Amino acid sequence: MSALGTPRPSPLPAPPPGAPTVSAPEPQEPRSRKWIVWLVLILVGGLVVWQAAVKPRMEAQAERASAVSAIKAAKVFAGTLARTVRVSGPTSSQEYTSITAPIMRGPEAGRELTLLYLVDSGKIVKKGELIAQIDAKTLEDHIDDIGDDIERAEADVRKRRAEQAIETENLTQTIRVAQAELDKAILEEKASETRTVIDRELLKLAVEEAQARLNQTKADVAHKLQAHKSELRILEITKERHVRHRDRHKTDLVKFKMYSPMDGLAVVQMTWRGGEYGVIRQGDNVTPGMLFLKVVNPAKMQVEGQVNQSESSLFRIGQKARIRLDAFPELNLAGKVHSIGALAAGGWRQSYYIRNVPVRITFTEVHNKVIPDLSAAADVTITEEENVKQLALAAVRREEGKDVVYVRKGDQFERREVKLGLSNNTHAAVLSGLEVGEEVALEKPAIQMAALR
After folding, report:
1. Residue 14 falls within a domain, yes or no?
2. Tens place of pLDDT per residue across the chain (453 aa)
């Protein structure tokens, strides 16, 4: 039976005995059957050859392509390349006014002051607006008490002046009596012709005695009047002292209401309260001279940073910068170097010999989210080149004293020497050896492919 389904031939009848034997003709296979057999054989042979030789080669190529594609690469591109130095520090305002608790001029200047009113931190205030007020009830009562002392002092002056007027009149009467006695003695002396020599001497002595008594009385009265003036002056000085005391407290009372000296943003300061560091608020006690509030101009903000003294020579006033804020990472604002410190300063927690130079970087873009006391970082542009070919520094290898890169060529990487120019922390300018658009490996291909194997 044929595998191709050829119909089976029917059996021939047996020939009669004695008859000549005739051989039957052999059946011929169709030509189409041979062609199909050869086709099957060819297909099977091709499959065997593909399985034995072609498939392993294709799998090796696919594995190699996968290994090459797994190596991280970056393209060479053209653009602006800048070398920058980062400066970190808090933000602050270039224009601000510090509001401190008043230092009282009165004798009771050392006592604590209680904030009766304090503007909310972050509020925009206008010039002349009330921003803080200190409780003045105790001081007002004290001023009233001093007023009573002044009235008593004035009454003492009036009383003593009246008493001195009476004493002065008595002293004047004493002088008049002494003058009358002197006049009497002089008249009696003029009538001494009829008297004896002894009487005349007695009358003369009486005149001299009356004259001396008058002079002494006048001197005593003068001294007494001077004493009166001194007593009055003492009482007047006491009164003036009370008046000055009151006037000083009245001046202090005016300072208990504080008004904004400029338009700006109110920034309440921090303090220790019960072992915790927090914002000063209404009802807290402040000491005279204590800073508790600032009014800043939010349109003129800056970053107060420091740079190592070894990098200070790279900075120049006017250099451009890009500023970022930790609190608002989406912001990227423009700025410039405003000032550079003339002297280096040491830090509190650093060794004495480690010195940093203060640098101030101002915001040239105004944003309402920029407020004082935010942590910021400014990338100051030291050098900048435009339209230069550049590649990632991670792709550069230092081999045998030369800079080399591995350039992708199909499914392979080609080692190539390059010449580099300006560089920053992430990229470097390509002077020769590469063209824009070429891909370079960020990892050494031999190491990467060996790891994949």
Report:
1. no
2. 344 444 455 454 555 555 454 444 555 555 556 677 777 777 777 777 766 666 566 655 555 555 556 678 889 999 999 999 999 999 999 999 999 999 888 777 667 799 999 999 999 999 999 999 999 998 899 999 999 999 999 999 999 999 999 999 998 999 999 999 989 888 888 877 777 888 888 888 988 998 999 999 999 989 999 999 999 999 999 999 999 999 999 999 999 999 999 999 999 999 988 888 899 999 999 998 999 999 999 999 999 999 988 889 999 999 999 999 999 999 999 999 999 999 888 766 656 677 889 999 999 999 999 999 999 999 999 999 999 999 999 999 988 889 999 998 887 888 999 999 998 888 999 999 999 999 999 888 864 444 444
Report the number of distinct structural domains present in the chain. Answer: 3
| Whole-angstrom distance, CA of residue 232 vs CA of residue 227 | 9
For residues 280 and 326, membership in a common domain is answered with: no
> For residue 129, is it within any domain?
yes
377 CB-contact burial (10 Å; exposed 0-12 / middle 13-18 / buried 19+):
middle
- Read off the CATH number of the domain in which 118 is found: 2.40.50
Domain of 288, in residue numbers: 102-135+257-295
Q: Are residues 336 and 447 in the same domain?
A: yes
Residue 74's contacts (CB-CB under 8 Å, 6 or more residues apart) are: 391, 392, 394, 395, 439, 440, 442
- The contacts of residue 249 (CB under 8 Å, 6+ apart) are 104, 105, 106, 139, 142, 143, 146
Assigned domain for 17 exists: no
Q: DSSP assignment, residue 396?
A: -
